[in-house]
Design goal:
globular, 9 helices, mainly alpha, single chain, 2 strands
């Protein structure tokens, strides 16, 4: 703007607004029976919709802006997949953790794991967990970077995981030998990131593991599949619990 506060005629202003999303009737009843005062009527509304029935709180648009709104809908699966690839590549590149030749094989596989997780959350759940967005993808990328960098800083981590595996061999001799293979840093980081960002939000976690483990491929090697995913998470949990 100039000194008089005017805006150049060539400047165009664009804003993005989130549409409100309502909980399902089943979810509303579940929340009402859970207590916490949810069953008491909320005076805050958007039109006739109570704000407590929304997945997240939004503010109504001023009437003067409604004539300018254009609803472009939501991104389709292909577009989200392309966004995911770009986000993974951008953040992995900025992290400086991977040489270029590794980056080229890591990015598409991890991106596919994230796309699969997003698709599962939307189609297999009927509560808050089904509402996922690009924010969840960004969170899972940051979680992966955190766990991978942690492995590089804490050298004893690998030794202690190996100790957990040796303990399992003595206490649980019937475990599939494939599940007792020590995972590399890439695969373990993916398992932990997906567990924190997606699996932890679910009640039926095995179904999620069975789905996403189908998409672990080189360089993310998970020879024991779903069981290996679960065991690896428990090993890391045990490691942290012993340090408390």
């Amino acid at each position: 703007t100039g000194r008089n506060g005017s805006i150049a005629e060539t400047l165009k202003l664009v804003g993005a607004c989130n549409p409100y999303i309502m909980h399902t009737d089943k979810m509303i009843k579940k929340l009402e029976t859970a207590g916490l005062g949810f069953r008491h009527r909320d005076s805050s509304t958007i039109g006739t919709v109570e704000l407590r029935h929304l997945v997240y709180r939004v503010q109504p648009l001023p009437i003067s802006l409604e004539v300018h709104v254009w609803d472009f809908g939501k991104i389709n699966d292909l577009t989200e997949s392309q966004y995911t690839q770009n986000m993974v590549h951008h953040q992995f590149s900025n992290s400086k953790l991977f040489p270029q030749e590794i980056l080229e094989v890591v990015v598409p596989v991890y991106a596919e794991l994230l796309v699969t997780s997003q698709r599962f959350m939307r189609s297999k759940t009927d509560d808050e967990a089904s509402f996922v967005s690009l924010r969840d993808i960004a969170r899972a990328i940051q979680a992966f970077i955190y766990f991978y960098s942690l492995h590089r800083r804490v050298k004893i981590f690998e030794e202690r995981i190996l100790y957990e595996i040796e303990q399992e061999k003595e206490s649980e001799p019937d475990i599939d030998p494939d599940c007792q293979i020590q995972l590399d840093q890439l695969t373990r980081s993916a398992v932990l990131a997906l567990s924190v960002c997606y699996q932890a939000r679910l009640t039926n976690r095995q179904e999620y593991r069975e789905e996403v483990c189908q998409y672990f491929q080189n360089p993310f090697l998970l020879p024991g599949g779903e069981e290996h995913f679960d065991l690896e998470l428990r090993r890391v949990q045990n490691l942290f619990v012993r340090d408390m």
